[in-house]
Amino acid sequence: MKLSDTMATPIEEKLDQNLKVRTGMVHVSDGKSRPEPLRLNLTMELLSLQKLEVVTPSSCHPNGPPMESKERMVQITRQKQGGLGLSIKGGAEHKLPILISRIYKDQAADITGQLFVGDAIIKVNGEYITACPHDDAVNILRNAGDIVVLTVKHYRAATPFLQKQLTKDTPDSDNDATCAELKADEGYKSSVNSGTISRSCSRPMSICSEPEKRWTDVVAVPLMMAYVTRYIYGTDKLRQNAFEVRGLNGITTGVIHCDELAILSQWLKLITDNVVGLTHLQMKLYNRNFAVGERIEYMGWVNEGVINNNISWQSYKPRFLLLKGTEVMLFETPPLNVTGISKALVVYKVYQTMFRIVKESETVDSRQHCFLLQSSGHEPRYLSVETRQELLRIENSWNAAIVTSVIKLGRKTFAVSHHGKSGGLTLDWQAGFSLTEGADSAIVWQYKFSQLRGSSDDGKSKLKLHFQDHDSRAIETKELECQVLQSLLFCMHAFLTAKVASVDPAFLSSIQQT
């Protein structure tokens, strides 16, 4: 059978250096032209599209870097003089991997004989650094201990340029200049843009082994905080048996087509699980910088519906959602470091924001798995995710974030009017509801959260709270007026949700739907 006639195949799984690798034939297009058959290759942190090519075997390079860009684990013993014996360039701020740019002769990295200029460092002692800026990567390597295990993968597109830099007087500290030159290098640009890799042999062909067929990467998309979707970009139109993956570095797989829905579902689950796992590891890395009450509960991609002429949701924009401490944030692109977290497009307080899952009968178009975020004083935001599972993950994280934010807040007081008198309604995590009046803030009445039996409002400023007296069991209604009623109601909802969660630890994990 010719390769052009190859059908999509079931997913095969194998172990490569104790790491799971999945492969299978699919068809890939740019969304316009006819799909062509390629092999999908999935590792924990990388999704590659591969084609079968005739190449010269790696035996042509017995003392050089590996011809195949597979992951390798290399153990280095740090030396007292010279440390790890290597220098690095690149970093997330330059949209480049962390690359080994120099290996010092007879020092630790050189002694291993397994590290090369052009190797991209993926993990340090099992910790992913693929989304780290340069300075963070340097600090991680410096503090990695005396025995350091690096997970690396050779980045052949950058190797010729980095080797050329070794002959120049460019200081190792000048990372910005080197990265700019690398991205402008014609050899590097042509290799990245075409997806091809230089395979010139350093010895005459007659001395090399016979050429052989081998799967080589056409496109490689890093999965750390990658965007996976079945929808045609920016619309509510679901692709039939097809999906797309977009990496942080701007590289996309194109549209991947599967012949069978079962195979499509398998690929989507495997890829999404890897993205979620990597994103969770990155979240843990970020959280090292934050106190308990300020940590990230969730981060991942959503799509926001955009209104056009107040008629309908005409288009969707990808947004990166973070739940951190007392805040919910939306970004146009994921933050690449801790500093980037302060540059959100939208920031709302969790305790003043309502989260509501949209029922299927209430969705505005063909997008499924939708939810609303509405913060006091702002228009509601209509958002969607790819799967029901992801929607429930956000809901559970939201409930956890509410508990964190309310406990951190402790108490909140709203200016109200009660029987014509000005006062303050306080929501207190420990004490419950209380109304105070006068200059001395004397308490007029006080109830626990558990005594609230219901509430009603006119949607403008008037609010009725119905409490049950502990002794008489009678219902006592308190009438109030508040000029920021929506803010008060949202905050009440947050305090009550947090109380339920604290009384019932199973509350946050009670939703076990598929």
Structure described in brief:
With 514 residues, the protein is α+β, with helices and mostly antiparallel strands. Helices cover 21% and strands 37% of the residues.
Q: What would you say this structure looks like, in words?
A:
With 514 residues, this protein is α+β, with helices and mostly antiparallel strands. The protein folds into four domains: 12-45 and 223-268, no CATH class; 72-163, Roll (Pdz3 Domain), CATH 2.30.42.10; 289-406, PH-domain like, CATH 2.30.29.30; 410-487, PH-domain like, CATH 2.30.29.30. It is built from eight helices and 28 strands. Strand 15 and strand 16 (312-324) form a beta hairpin. Helix 7 packs across helix 8 (485-503). The chain is elongated and about 90 Å long. It is found in: Cytoplasm, Cytoskeleton. Belongs to the syntrophin family. Its main location: cytoplasm. Keywords: Cytoplasm, Cytoskeleton.
